[in-house]
Design brief:
Helix content: 40-55%
Strand order of the largest sheet: 2-5-8-1-9
CATH class of the largest domain: Alpha Beta
Strand content: 5-15%
Radius of gyration: 24 Å
Shape: elongated
Number of helices: 15
CATH architecture of the largest domain: 3-Layer(aba) Sandwich
Structural class: alpha/beta
Number of domains: 3
Length: 305
């Protein structure tokens, strides 16, 4: 059986790591062999992938690419400090419950047990991303920036990912028919607890080398000239070697190339680079440092420069 779309198991999923890498490439995501292997095992073994690395390295876009490869909806949970079960798991639709209660009272329904059963039924249940992912088959669940949440939320997440079940006191235990494919991302603003890490497969996202980053730009932005794409990639790679507060990621490389293409540029010089630095550098201190560099000398290193 050949690689690519021909290599798939009985439900249309790639049946080898190499096939997964090829399918990801078809949807515009260029994964290395280690990441393709992690994706294959995550789907085959129903294990979450914990993706760590600098912001902009491609962690979040991996979940979107996986959803495309698997033909599944992407369900995203953005984590933040203080997030709890009501925002992540489920909640009750209190306004509709209150309205139902008033209508029932107006209609003369006095059976308290009957009313309670009606009020706490799936009719009034609001499924947040975690529960929605369990109820959607198939699905890809992205738990983005899990390092921003607290340890209490990590414990809730660990319980969910261990059994893929949710216990709702008023309804009982809800089981997912098919576990979602789960991608957790972390920018390492704090360490994720070891218990959650043990539950997951792990992949560290390094910034790509020049050839791979250029290939990503060419694949994602075919309207940008090859020479301009090479110049932008060379310059971003050089900026990562500086002591910046926020080194640019692949996302910033794509933003910069897209902005230059929108300006009609086919090549980049130092003047245009300095004028458009806001697409790639996000701190005043970094802007000042980059503007002081000999950008012409860096651009001369680009192929065709």
């Amino acid at each position: 059986m050949g690689a690519g779309t021909e290599a798939a198991d009985e439900v249309g999923r790639p049946d080898r790591p190499e096939a997964f890498r090829d399918r990801l490439a078809e949807v515009g995501y260029l994964a290395d062999d280690g990441l393709a292997l992690a994706c294959f095992l995550a789907v085959r073994l129903h294990r979450p992938i914990l993706c760590e690395g600098d912001a902009g390295a491609g962690k979040t876009s991996l979940a979107s690419a996986l959803a495309q490869v698997l033909g599944a909806p992407l369900i995203r949970l953005q984590c933040y400090e203080g997030i709890d079960a009501a925002q992540a798991l489920y909640d009750w639709d209190f306004p509709r419950q209150l309205l139902h209660l008033r209508v029932a009272e107006a209609g003369g329904i006095a059976d308290a047990d009957l009313l309670e059963n009606e009020l706490y039924s799936t009719r009034f249940l609001i499924a947040r991303p975690l529960l929605r992912a369990l109820q959607t088959h198939p699905s890809v669940l992205l738990v983005d920036e899990v390092d921003r949440a607290d340890e209490e939320f990590e414990a809730l997440l660990l319980e969910l990912l261990s059994e893929y079940t949710v216990t709702i006191p008023e309804l009982g235990t809800l089981h997912g028919q098919e576990p979602p494919v789960v991608v957790l991302t972390s920018n390492r603003t704090r360490e994720v607890h070891d218990a959650l890490k043990r539950r997951c497969l792990y992949h560290w996202f390094d910034h790509p080398d020049f050839e791979r980053e250029l290939a990503i730009v060419r694949r994602r932005l075919p309207q940008v000239t090859e020479h301009l794409a090479a110049q932008v990639t060379v310059l971003v790679q050089a900026l990562r070697g500086q002591d910046l507060l926020k080194p640019p990621g692949v996302a910033e490389t794509l933003d910069w190339a897209e902005a230059l293409g929108a300006l009609g540029a086919t090549a980049l010089d130092a003047e245009l680079a300095r004028a458009t630095l806001g697409s790639v550098v996000k701190y005043r201190e970094d802007l000042e440092q980059v503007r002081a560099l000999d950008l012409d000398a860096i651009l001369a290193a680009a192929p065709g420069g």
